[in-house]
Amino acid sequence: MAYLSLKEETIQELQNIAHRLRIHAITSTQAAKSGHPTSCSSIAEIMSVLFFYTMRLNLQNPRDPASDRLVLSKGHAAPILYAAWAELGLFPVENLLNLRKYNSDLEGHPTPRLNFIDVATGSLGQGVAVAAGMAYVGKYFDKSNYRIYVVVGDGESTEGSVWESLHFAAHHKLDNLCIIFDVNRLGQSGPTSLGHQMDIYRQRLEGFGCNVYVINGHEVEDLLEAFHEAAYTKKKPTAVIAKTFKGKHFPNIENMDCWHGRPLGNKAESVINHLQDLIVDAKGHEIPIKSLPSIVPVPNVDITNLKLSTPPAYKIGDPIATRLAYGSALEKLVEYNNCVIALDGDTSSSTFSDKLKKAFPDNFIECFTAEQNLVGAAIGAACRDRTIVFASTFAAFFTRAFDQLRMGAISGTNANFVGTHCGVSIGEDGPSQMGLEDIALFRALPGSTVFYPSDAVSCERAVELAANIKGICFIRTSRPNTAVIYDNNESFAVGKAHVLKQSPKDQILLIGACVTLMECLRAAIGLEKIGMHARVLDPFTIKPLDRESILENGYACYGLILVVEDHYQQGGLGEAVLSALADRRGFIVKHLFIPSVPRSGAPKTLLDKFGISARHIFKAAKEIIEIDSTVF
Amino acid sequence: MAYLSLKEETIQELQNIAHRLRIHAITSTQAAKSGHPTSCSSIAEIMSVLFFYTMRLNLQNPRDPASDRLVLSKGHAAPILYAAWAELGLFPVENLLNLRKYNSDLEGHPTPRLNFIDVATGSLGQGVAVAAGMAYVGKYFDKSNYRIYVVVGDGESTEGSVWESLHFAAHHKLDNLCIIFDVNRLGQSGPTSLGHQMDIYRQRLEGFGCNVYVINGHEVEDLLEAFHEAAYTKKKPTAVIAKTFKGKHFPNIENMDCWHGRPLGNKAESVINHLQDLIVDAKGHEIPIKSLPSIVPVPNVDITNLKLSTPPAYKIGDPIATRLAYGSALEKLVEYNNCVIALDGDTSSSTFSDKLKKAFPDNFIECFTAEQNLVGAAIGAACRDRTIVFASTFAAFFTRAFDQLRMGAISGTNANFVGTHCGVSIGEDGPSQMGLEDIALFRALPGSTVFYPSDAVSCERAVELAANIKGICFIRTSRPNTAVIYDNNESFAVGKAHVLKQSPKDQILLIGACVTLMECLRAAIGLEKIGMHARVLDPFTIKPLDRESILENGYACYGLILVVEDHYQQGGLGEAVLSALADRRGFIVKHLFIPSVPRSGAPKTLLDKFGISARHIFKAAKEIIEIDSTVF
Question: One GO molecular-function annotation for this sequence (chains A, B) (predicted)?
């Protein structure tokens, strides 16, 4: 459907609104004494057109799943986003003056404390991934026609993550996605690398598979037309490349360096006066009803009370890798409830998410080798409770997306992450492929839950629990086959450890997980042969850790604890145990971990050479027991 | 200079070598029973031409600074890289059969344990950044004509980091850089997203500012010509987009799915026979002397014994942000030795690396908003001891480059990293900008040193020490001004804490750094007023931590310790202290940290609301002292 020009007075009204938004951006950052008014001004017309004409929003329920979404990737322009919602009537415009104050949710950068924000932004270059995840869900799961808009700064367009997401969006033909590039020529510390070379942006974005419009971002009608045409473009995401000026319409500030992240100070008044003069024939004209068709209702989705379709069915002693059990559990979850989806970054044949890919191809999203987008898209897909998401790759490669995970935690995302190939037990591939800091990473995310299942039964249950827990869950799985140790009927709970071996004579508590738990059990048998007694504990979740059980069993073993993990020293299971015991005197904790950069070799060789095999556990336990009994 | 065809027999010889390399890749992965022979085969001609004709190498010193460099970004093709060096004569070809064995340095993916490897690869998409860093140094610091080649897989070209680095390379006109894309159409779990659509690769790479050749990657002469022309192209990096086939010349395997990362097993023998048949008129022809001009000698650089040109010159009590002291120290280092360079990601006006940028613009490299490339380029710039590198951005944004830092640690890089704006003390900008997991990140890197200077004097010394320490150093700096507490003559050493307040009556040891150290000092004064006595310790380095001093002072305070940090609980200063005390009974450690996602607000408000202000320290210390004296 071709774009028909709107009446001149409508266009003037949208222009007037843009100026009003500019004024709010100035007054709110003046009140806060910090913030980014010039970065707001360059997108004033973009925001005006999106919010007051193009987007189909529901003021009664800003996170209505059947409405358009906007992600402000350049989160530092938050004041104008807040101003737009206030001008729409969601909350009083006076509240804008509480920007950045402790008691206001109008934070320096947007967070979902606000009911009209889906995800936190402010770490640049992440919005496109989230928007692409939303768009994928809209197109392929909700099968609705709601549209996703994302506003990206030109400074942030140098983030590689942006290009990962554009590639993803084009590959999956996300024609419901519209990416607006605010090319205002100025970054934080100086001019951007590309300035106003619009042709280069065009060439890059066309190369990455977008339907491209290069427009004047301060021309209301250019924007109206581009957004209209975008909505009728099929099989391609649209990139609107808007040539703008930082501080547009701020006399003596517009397009000048050194005005990033600064309120206008004593220039504010004159700029506001100037903007007020630009508002012509205000409150004159109603904006007509939007031209796009109304939104197709979205299906009802119930993402609660997820269960495995059938319980684990293994035989004790059978060698099954926990990563394989992850794949099986995924498949069972989808059998039970079709809202479960999996994403992977070209590692599905290793993570075993390909079990779901084969059984339910529609529930699988291939993200190729691009972990930042993998995580960002997962966060986007989980928004507004449309799906339960599991995203998997090698544990090591989640380090690639730590910033996205960090922002995911700030966003309170419900996405789940599964990292396989942890530790030296992967063997010959060598250190680049070994996850040895993944527990540290995921423990450090506020509100996260970290599972480290020790066998196939507990891994299936971990997946089931993760599907039901709010917030980020991480499940650490291993490459090698390890023996099934739990009965299929064993019950598992978050923060609940399992004691696998105990006697009243125990002298030391051994704590390990998966491969190192197996080594602990072997060491315990060895110790028994020389008349020493070790208790063995499987924590199941590293965060929260079962502090009560560790205290109780630790005290029962005279306060002697040995923690063994296939991870570096810092931030892993060992330090989690130490944190749990920090306020108690009387414990000695010996920690065996990977002490240096590992290397290639057979898994068993590496466990031994890097000091976490049964032999080392045996030796360390014996030493501690002997020394301790000498001292006391 | 135009490319002149080589003699037919030379071309045949290079083709023969390619087949010999293929055979080595098969036999070595057969011996290892794992590895990626098909991924090797697609680059056999590329490697043959580079190693046996194009590159100017020094077999006597493979890391000769005056020689060309190759980075194998697709590190899983390591066997053919090893084979090339072996065939060149660096080590016996028989050694190739030790691939992936514990006692061999021929690991599954390349690491600098080998004297011909500059950086570890294997986590995909990182090679271009490193190569770009090397190229920048070659062009602008060494001012030599050595060239940098980097081989990138098509699967990994979806990593955004690749595009960050291409942007960087084009912006800085790195015409000494040649990026070879091995477009073999197949990824790990299936076909790549772009397959053999060479035009799309061309459009993208031209859009990103490269001089582009699309060639048949199995045609020796195509490669010879492209590398020749690349060497004579000015002001642009060259991208050679090579159309190849995975498992090329492996009958019934070539171009077939499901052969990623698998040795050929029982097909190996027949494939080897086939390849041997393809070797025509072998050992017949000498390869002529290379056509490129010889390498311009590189300047002598001494990167040892770096000093500040002048000592710190502050007045005790003056309010100076540690980030500002970082900028000052950088400038002083360059004044002393011009080998020091700084990189920043469009945050130089906030990190104060702009002090160096203004004083010594030639020693500053702008990396724009692209932290993965920032870190990768820093690692590249530090290679072969050409420069001492400091790379800075907000502490929070290093999470974006955790994978690059992880690989940097495996590479034993000597690059230094400075993260500003740590913790809630940044205030109004809100959680997206707060580094609250950066200590956890940098502690978890093997061999790292983590500085957390508490004032301007100690920060300048931290920068000086970091410049001299091998391995990754991280310096955590703060945004707000904090009082200078050390005399300008105070001496600082790695792993050496400073006790700032003590008396024989001390009942508790308070440990903090920078903003929280100031709060500890305030709390100690408060405690004194109610007759309680606290000792205050500044650790200076978090890794290594001054265990002796903490033990000694902790015992002197009856084993009561209170650690306060502007960081999340996990992996930070608190858990570092707990690890240091793990093997001792008798300590109680109370830990105050940021317990949840923070929000915008005034710095002082946030310190208090999130529980790390003097008031909270006072209260916690009082409580512990009282409870403990009741118990004992």
Answer: metal ion binding
State the Cα–Cα distance between residues B44 and B51, nearest whole angstrom: 11
User: Model confidence at A4, in pLDDT bands (50, 70, 90)?
Assistant: confident
Does the model's pTM come out above 0.95?
Answer: yes
Report the alpha-carbon angle B416-B170-A193, nearest 5: 80
Amino acid at B323: R
Of A454, A484, A514, the last residue of a domain is A484
Number of domains comprising chain A: 3
- Within 8 A by CB and 6+ apart from B340, the residues are B306, B330, B333, B334, B363, B387, B388, B390, B467
Q: Chain B contacts of A192, Cβ < 8 Å? A: 368
B438 interface with A at CB cutoff 8 Å: no
Q: Are residues B476 and B522 in the same domain?
A: no
* A429 and A546 together in one domain: no
Q: Is A630 left (phi over 0), alpha (psi -120 to 50) or beta?
A: alpha
pLDDT at residue A156 in the model? 97
Q: Which residue of B has its CA nearest to A153?
A: B369
Q: Please report, rounded to a whole number, the percentage of residues in chain A having pLDDT higher than 70.
A: 98
Any idea what the Cα angle at residue B494 is, between residues B493 and B497, rounded to 5°? Answer: 75
Task: Give a yes or no: residue A175 inside a domain.
Answer: yes
Write out the residue range of the structural domain in which residue A600 sits. Answer: 498-629
Query: Residue B346 has what DSSP assignment?
Result: S
User: B247 and B154, same structural domain?
Assistant: yes
Chain A residue closest in CA terms to B190:
A346
Higher per-residue pLDDT: B244 or B280:
B244
Q: Is residue A287 part of a domain?
A: no
The residue out of B278, B294, B328 marking a domain boundary is B278
Residue A435 in tokens = 């996850």
Provide the β-strand partners of residue B390: B342, B416
From CA B334, how far away is CA B141, in angstroms rounded?
14
- For the question of an ipTM over 0.85, the answer is yes
Domain assignment present for residue A93? The answer is yes
CB pairs under 8 A between A and B: 357
Q: Does A323 touch chain B (CB under 8 A)?
A: no
Are A454 and A544 within one domain? no
Residue that the structure tokens 């030795």 belong to: B337
User: How many Å lie between the alpha carbon of B597 and the closest alpha carbon of chain A?
Assistant: 6
Looking at the fold, whether A465 and A510 belong to one and the same domain comes out as no
Q: What is the DSSP string of B445-486?
A: STT-EEE---SHHHHHHHHHHHHHSSS-EEEE--SS-EE--S
Give a yes or no: residue B290 inside a domain. no
B303 pLDDT tier (thresholds 50, 70, 90): very high
CATH number at residue B72: 3.40.50.970
Query: Closest approach of chain B CAs to the CA of A598, in angstroms?
Result: 9
Question: Is there a contact between B370 and A570 if contact means CB atoms under 8 Å apart?
Answer: no
Q: Which of A431, A444, A582 sits opposite B410 (nearest CB)?
A: A431
CATH number at residue A552: 3.40.50.920
Q: Do B396 and A410 touch (CB under 8 A)?
A: no
B 141-180 near A (Cβ less than 8 A)? 155-156, 158-164, 167, 171
Residues A554 and A428 in one domain: no
Name the DSSP letter for residue B299: P
